[in-house]
């Protein structure tokens, strides 16, 4: 890019116009994953001032910070959903149904426990009704 300064006859634009075009391109793609700011700065001419890059650096920093915070927010939401689901699962697992020798199935009217005190297979519904 310093070639326009050294041989102005070969270049129809002056170096400031090339710098403006490059900065415009950088501003357009400031948040692109393939253009990390630390690599971009290493490729720019040393003659460019930090003041001329301030808009690009500000925009890329804001985009990066937003992406990081959005990622943390999504992770926290996922964690909350997991904890809520685990809590509901633990609550359901803690529920108990007592089956006694006197209880009968409301469908077939047979007892859940035989005379030998052997329990039979049953299903417990959420309203605590048990059936064979």
Distance between the termini: 85 Å
Low-confidence stretches: none
Q: Overall pLDDT, averaged?
A: 86
User: What is the CA-based Rg, rounded?
Assistant: 36 Å
> Which bin fits the share of residues in helices?
40-55%
Give the overall shape, derived from the CA principal axes.
Answer: rod-shaped
Strand content: under 5%
Detailed description of the structure:
With 132 residues, the protein is mainly alpha-helical. The protein has helices at residues 3-6, 15-28, 37-43, 50-94; strands at residues 123-124, 130-131. It has a two-stranded antiparallel sheet with strand order 1-2. The longest helix is centred in the middle third of the chain and has 45 residues, at 50-94.
Features:
single chain, 4 helices, mainly alpha, 132 residues
Briefly say what this structure is.
With 132 residues, the protein is mainly alpha-helical.
């Amino acid at each position: 890019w310093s070639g326009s300064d050294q041989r102005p006859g070969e270049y129809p634009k002056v170096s400031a116009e090339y710098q403006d075009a490059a900065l415009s391109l950088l501003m357009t793609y400031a948040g692109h994953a393939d253009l990390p700011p630390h690599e971009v700065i290493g490729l720019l001419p040393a003659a460019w001032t930090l003041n001329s890059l301030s808009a690009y650096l500000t925009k890329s920093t804001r985009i990066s910070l937003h992406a990081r915070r959005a990622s943390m927010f999504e992770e926290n939401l996922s964690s909350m959903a997991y904890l809520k689901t685990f809590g509901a699962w633990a609550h359901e697992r803690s529920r108990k149904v007592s089956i006694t020798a006197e209880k009968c199935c409301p469908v077939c009217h047979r007892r859940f426990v035989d005379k030998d005190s052997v329990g039979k297979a049953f299903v417990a519904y959420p309203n605590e009704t048990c059936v064979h």
